[in-house]
Amino acid sequence: xxxxxxxxxxxxxxxxxxxxxxLIYLKPPTSDLREFFRQGASANIQxxxxxxxxxTGVDLLGxxxxxxxxxxxxxxxxxxxYLRTPHDIRELTLRYALYRWYRDQLREHGTVPNFGASxxxxxxxxxxxxxxAWNLANDALVSYDRTTAGGxxxxxxLVPFWRxxxxxxxTQVGFMxxxxxxxxxxxxxxxxx
Length: 193
Fold this sequence. Notes:
Layout: H1 5-23, H2 31-52, H3 70-109, H4 120-125, H5 129-140, H6 149-157, H7 162-181, H8 183-192
Helix pairs in contact: 1-3, 2-3, 2-5, 3-5
């Protein structure tokens, strides 16, 4: 899913600015950003945020809730929410830039130069350009929202950052499958050998 360098940097920077303006400066989202969240970015980032706490789903600040002291708890919640926003922006910037790139490729050419880590048949069967672009971008950058039920349990109780590990394995397998299915790439490698 390699973007041309100049275009990729500009798209990532513009995506960062839109996310920053909406999530930090509380400006209304652009129509592109609104559509991105409608496609599933909100659910994905919420799932990723659950992974952050201690990595095992145990709330580090949970022990303070037992004391029933509202002022310190409110202060801790403000700090927790303040720290979460930069994480959300970091997590969403490349996903949003890639979503926009795939969407533009689909609108302009009707297809994409590569399917990244996605299953080509599944992507082509989706009804809208926006849904196709979302799935392509989400699959390429670890789709936390597709963690198996067992993986959710493992992440919550046993292994820190399991959702990322499971998603990363799925993403790498998808990339390898698509590299093997790419006739042009296989021909180029064969000519080099």
